[in-house]
């Protein structure tokens, strides 16, 4: 597979959308949370993303379902990222074995679970 197939750039969707009220996300995955997979990642399965610190990112799929990805350590610069890349290592699914690429930095995913919608960050 070509590098372009392995790495998918994702642009933030809805930059001009008005801020919507959202329920706060859980503090972390529940003990009963199951690892999930997002299929067809190379075909634009990820619609949007929001960060929650340097080690947690929320991903939204085409069906507007949210997922909480806990990273294997801090990913410097992810809070300011306008786009991210996904390296799923020759797989068509995004799961806890994939890696996010942010400004050339590789950020491995440790856990990927279904989640409620995260709150929007206040604009400064």
Average predicted local confidence, pLDDT: 77
Q: For the largest sheet, list the strands in their spatial order.
A: 1-6-8-9-5-4-3
| Helix vs. strand class | mainly beta
Largest sheet: 7 strands, antiparallel
3D structure, described in words:
The protein is mainly beta and 124 residues long. It has one domain (3-12, 34-115). The chain is 3% helix and 35% strand. It contains one helix and nine strands; from the N terminus they run αβββββββββ. It has one helix at 3-6, and strands spanning 10-11, 38-39, 46-51, 56-61, 66-71, 83-87, 93-94, 99-102, 105-115. A seven-stranded antiparallel β-sheet has the order 1-6-8-9-5-4-3, with no helix packed on it. The protein has a two-stranded antiparallel sheet with strand order 2-7. β3 (46-51) and β4 (56-61) form a beta hairpin. Mean pLDDT is 77; it is low at 1-25.
């Amino acid at each position: 597979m070509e590098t372009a197939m392995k790495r998918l750039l994702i642009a933030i969707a809805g930059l001009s959308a008005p801020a919507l009220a959202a329920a706060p996300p859980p503090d972390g995955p529940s003990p009963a949370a199951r690892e999930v997979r997002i299929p067809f990642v190379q075909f634009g399965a990820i619609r949007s993303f929001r960060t929650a610190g340097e080690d947690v990112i929320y991903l939204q799929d085409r069906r507007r379902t949210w997922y909480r990805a806990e990273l294997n350590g801090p990913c410097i610069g992810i809070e300011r990222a306008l786009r991210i890349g996904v390296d799923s290592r020759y797989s068509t699914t995004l799961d806890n074995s994939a890696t996010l690429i942010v400004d050339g930095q590789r950020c491995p995913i440790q856990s990927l679970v279904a989640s409620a919608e995260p709150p929007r960050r206040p604009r400064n």
